Fold:
Amino acid sequence: MPFIKERLKTRRINMGLTLQEIADKIGVEKPTVQRYESGKIKKIDTVTIELLAKAVACSPAYLMGWTNSPLKFSEAHHSTDDETLLSDFHKLNNRGKQAALGAVKGFTFVPEYAESESEEVG
Structure:
């Protein structure tokens, strides 16, 4: 599984996530994630591949090297702004994440910032 190690590490770093954060998300110890990224663990079960993909916001097919697009087909409409926002969000501590979520939620109630239903359909 040569693609997994490079793609997992690249996605993790681009999202600003630590090895520990990935480990916490998938329920393993930090050294295990380190071994996935180094390629020392050669056989990774499908459930773990799915968990890793979810943790780094990509499709399992991308981690496996079956596609060059990190996004699932249904997520292809996401923009670079979405990825930047998510990457910056993951750099925050828990208090910062809660503040950011509150701010974004607040913006949705401001007509000047919120998309109307007719804009969302288009």
